[in-house]
Amino acid sequence: DSGVTQTPKHLITATGQRVTLRCSPRSGDLSVYWYQQSLDQGLQFLIQYYNGEERAKGNILERFSAQQFPDLHSELNLSSLELGDSALYFCASSVPPLGGELFFGEGSRLTVL
Amino acid sequence: GESVGLHLPTLSVQEGDNSIINCAYSNSASDYFIWYKQESGKGPQFIIDIRSNMDKRQGQRVTVLLNKTVKHLSLQIAATQPGDSAVYFCAEQTSYDKVIFGPGTSLSVIP
After folding, report:
1. Quick one: which of A39, A81, B80, B82 has the fewest CB in 10 Å?
2. What span, in angstroms and rounded, lies between the C-alpha atoms of A36 and B44?
3. Is A42 in contact with B89 (Cβ distance < 8 A)?
């Protein structure tokens, strides 16, 4: 158990809909990262937050947004969903803003029909 | 743009043999590299890391080698066991906090 909690574990929805994925980092970790993993694909970096502030951005679509709240949990919002958004979405956390081991959650599997 | 790539997408080894997983990276400014293991249905787990001021680092049954001249790193697993079967990702730390992962290598251990 990494200590990172992601909900929901599975989500099935239709095209055009909007979903929110939630992540609770390990106790004490200030950084939260979001990654997308499509079938047989690597981990695509989406976005990172540190202590409530956006720290780094990857190839995140404009239809996607995220935030980190004062209690350090984070949410990833996916809107106007398309079939190609079906993927595993991982959240990871770490203590420092620079380097260090990332602790990953079990992921949220999104299926868009 | 930044990219981290793997030479071999799949690797099959006999139990007890040594495994070598290779990785190429493109950003010569990256100064921190990490190997992660992802088992089926789980999130990636940290295996070992290395900073750019080192060329070798050893852990328990694993060794990471870094060759900055050719921008290459490798993960060596000694006496590979069935429990080592997983997908292995190399990752590089770039632009302060952005951790970029490679496409992954699937390691299959034959009993």
Report:
1. A39
2. 12
3. yes
Question: What average pLDDT does this structure show over B13-22?
Answer: 96
**The pairing of beta strand A108-112 with beta strand A10-13:** parallel
Q: Which positions ≥6 away from A26 have C-beta within 8 Å?
A: A2, A3, A4, A93, A103
> Strands A108-112 and A103-104, how do they pair?
unpaired
pLDDT tens for residues A17-57?
999 999 999 999 999 999 999 876 689 999 999 999 998 89
Q: What is the pLDDT of residue B95?
A: 57
**In contact, B89 and A42? CB cutoff 8 Å:** yes
- Collapsing DSSP to helix, strand or coil, A1 comes out as coil
Contact between B18 and B62 (Cβ < 8 Å): no
Residue B103 has pLDDT above 90, yes or no: no
Is the pLDDT score of A101 beyond 90?
no
CA gap A13, A27 in Å, rounded: 31
Q: Do A104 and B43 touch (CB under 8 A)?
A: yes
